[in-house]
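Technical appendix A lists one of the benchmark inputs used to test multi-chain prediction within the project. The record comprises two sequence entries:
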Amino acid sequence: MEKGKGVMGSGRRWAVDFSDNSTAPSSRDIPDPLGFNRASVDQDDSTVSRQKKDAESNWKAQKAWEVAQAPFKNLLMMGFMMWMAGNTVHLFSIGITFSALWQPISALQGVGKVFEPYKDSKVELLGPKLLFIALNLGGLALGVWKLNTLGLLPTHASDWVSSLPPAQEVEYSGGGIPL
Amino acid sequence: MAIRSFFVPFLLLVLWFYSSLSPVLSLYEDQVGLMDWHQQYIGKVKQAVFSTQKTGRRRVIVSTEENVIASLDLRHGEIFWRHLLGSNDVIDGIDIGLGKYVITLSSGGSILRSWNLPDGQMVWESFLQGPKHSKSLLLLPKHEIDCINVVQTNLKIEKDNVIVVFSNDRLHAVSCIDGEVLWKKDFETESFETQQVIQPPGSDLIYVVGFAASSQFEMYQINARNGELLKHESAIFSSGFLRELSLVSSETVVALDSTGSILLTISFQNGEISFQQTPISNIVEDSSGPAVIIPSSVPGIFAIKINSVTIFIRVIGKGKLEVVEKLNQETAVSNALPISESQQAFALVQHAGSEIHLVAKLAHDWDANLLKESIKMDQQRGIPHKVFINNYIRTDRSHGFRLLIVMEDHSLLLLQQGAIVWSREDGLASIIDVTASELPVERDGVSVAKVEHNLFEWLKGHMLKLKGTLMLASPEDVAAIQSMRLKSSEKSKMARDHNGFRKLLIVLTRAGKLFALHTGDGHIVWSHLLHKSEACQSPVGLNLYQWQVPHHHALDENPSVLVISRCGPSSDAPGVLSFVDTYTGKELNSLSLDHAVVQVIPLPHTDSTEQRLHLLIDSDKHAHLYPKTSEALGIFKREFSNIYWYSVEDHNSIIKGHALKCKCTGEVADEFCFDARDLWSVVFPSESEKITATVTRKLNEMVHTQAKVMADQDVMYKYISRNLLFVATVAPKGSGEIGSVTPEESWLVAYLIDIVTGRILYRVTHHGAQGPVHAVFSENWVVYHFFNLRAHRYEMSVIEIYDQSRADNKDVWKLVLGKHNLTSRISLFSRPEVITKSQSYFFTHSVKAIAVTSTAKGITSKQLLIGTIGDQVLALDKRFLDPRRSVNPTQAEKEEGIIPLTDSLPIIPQSYVTHALRVEGLRGIITVPAKLESTTLVFAHGVDLFFTQLAPSRTYDSLTEDFSYALLLITIVALVAAIFVTWRLSERKELQDKWR
């Protein structure tokens, strides 16, 4: 945030900063009001806020792990749904399979966003993220496996030759019963 | 690629889903006539009898060469009723008895039938057997037909009208009322050939005249009341007779001697035979060549033909002859028609350029013409062949005449008062070959049909349609909509359509005439009679081939067809090629060849103008290349060593394979002529096998894929070869009719033979089976139909051929990367490893023809089209003829669409593609692919013609006719409205939220 830097290029003569800076211990370039000693206030709050911050980061780390484990439940439910859907291709099973594929993919795309609220300098997010990614990849694998069991993956020779045109023959012949 | 292979099973699945929902492809009542058309014909008229005595519906009864008896409306030429007799029941004569019965004699004179004139119901039928009904007589069927006469007598024997029939060497008198034989009379003389049965008017006598040996004239006088022989006279004329006789009066006949140069007037007045000889040169000056008597029955006058000159000669008194007229043009003479007590009239029709001259004369007065007219005639109809005369009384009590003439192209015309009242294109009853051609591409100003007459009509039509879709239409409106749909001008437009439904069907008829029929409504676009040239007086049309099918770079050229005809009936007569433009019907070129045409091989190569190369094989096994251009020769030389052909000699059960050797040597030194060498021959043991059927794949058939995917993702590779021949042989004993042999003596052997190498790929014997065999070959399967003598039922068998040598191509990675040789060109000389699967099923019907549907890309599943004995076309899904069917298919197999095995093939009444119609005398079924992959065009021909569109897997690539556009429209409108309303609501809510 640019704070009342005064004249900024285009002939701005002065500026008044309405932002509330009471909590932020910033902007040392502006002198404090007379009779106000910043150091003493900081000293008072520091112990409380540190405790608070620790608790918060703990909470964040805990939450992050929880979020990272959330796909597991999803995985179980998906597995159950897939089991329910059976191995024949119809609307229901195709729908389930595609949602099983789509959910992990969209979750993986939004990994950063999911862990955004728990971002903290003190919180180690790598572990939860990896777990999250692993679980989602597991979900994806489950979806692909389901797709395969439905026979919708081109893993068989039949999927590759089904549109091969017949081979041409070198020889050509005709004839028949005389006209 | 991945998407495609991903998609194909999915698509197939959807198809299966659809087809398993409703395996029946039937029509709704209001869809009849939308896609299909049906035309009824009768064939070339042999004999016509008028029935105009009574007031009411005037009609003419005709018998035709297609074995049809029909009653036609004299006003419009429509068919009142029609009966098609079997092919072994040839009609010998027809007449009308008592004014209300149509009497027909058929089957070599052994069946006499009476039909009710108004409605064509059969009244009675009687079988006439002769004394010499033995094998020796049956060996001479030609003579039998010659000596059959139906004579109507007005005798009343115990108040009963009598029909006198001479057949099977016996004279019968049959009651007209119930068909009872009143008396019969045999003739003792050996080798007596009856020529005429004469009943002089107003007497009780019947004269039977004919020849015995070759030089003896015989006359029998018989009492018509009881068949008593009154007198038998014979006389010998030393130099012999020609077989023809012409009756000039009730007691005089005219014959020719065996050299055809002396006219003999034979009179048998009062039972005394007397000859009068008149050399033809005495009465006709410049007569050269033998004469032929034209059969006619005009009293006092007979006609002879010398070369192409027709000469009419009158008999004056005691055997004196006098030439009355010589006509140089082609002439047809009618029989005599009594117009009053003492007067008899007859008609002459002459052909002169673009006109025909009609003359009606009185028999006793040659110079006076009762009628003399000239009528402009389409030159494509050729010359008149037959004429039948009928009279009517005009209001001023004078006689008017109407003439029914049969033209060279087998068409039938009624002429009255100098105009053609109606005409029937009955040549279409005898189609030999069919091919399809595209219509011109639509351009501005070219063949755009008149859409609607005016704005009001247009508006009215659309209002009606709207009413129909919104289900507001009254029954009358529905009828109006239906007739509008049927007459839609879109259907019969003379331009190509996007889906390829509109095409021209080019048909060649037995009369040697080409017709182009529009597939939309079946109307004749053009017709063309094959021209006679100096070199060839009577070309016989044999076959049709696509000569030039322009696409891509030669689009400005019109497509053309090649008509192969032969100059005469024998198989080594020189051939004639005609090239006909399919847009206009103009003959572009005509070539009279100096060699015969025994086989025609269309090659898979075209020159720069898209003319297809054809190889014509003559009777000496020389191959001639057409077109005779150096460019074609260049293309041909490149493929020279890869061209093979085979010939089937079915009389001595040999199949031979040939290849090209070198340029012709000897007298026919021509750079387009090539010698052939024999490569291989398959000789079937003549004491145990006789070839009955040979089938190959259709040349233009498209196959989409070479792989067949099983339910368990396994692949089988189809053995798809254009060079496979299916041959069926039967035991020579069992080649007769069904039931003529015991099951032990009869068998059927089916072979699959590679034409190029002569290798027999498969052979199977059906014991206790008998022909006739009908077969169809498509992709990698053959279906054939035969009779099972043990089960007393017809059977259908299927053979599917798979290529085992490709079976190990199962490595996915190789396939993904394209490192396989599945699509590379293969040679048939590399040894194929094939496996076959086959299965048999009972089938209820006997079959007249089998065909298979064909589509543009070959993706759509196939249906067999079976022409049943009831002259209908039945569509049978190929899935019913799948050798992988089993009694209890697994779940996976069921998913794949395999039907549980049953002993017989189901006949679902709704799957008759001809629905309620019959294609009388069905002979062939032709399928043509439309541009739309799901659809195939089906044309069935016999005496009748039938055309329809079929979608074997339903129209999965287009919306069906009954798709509810209204519902779609309403849904879209409702959705748009909903979107608009919700958008407004959400905007308002958002605003309120912001103010909060």
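Chain B touches chain A through 69 residues (CB under 8 Å). Residues 1-24, 133-159, 445-452 of chain B have pLDDT under 50 and may be disordered. Comparable benchmark entries are summarised in Table A2.
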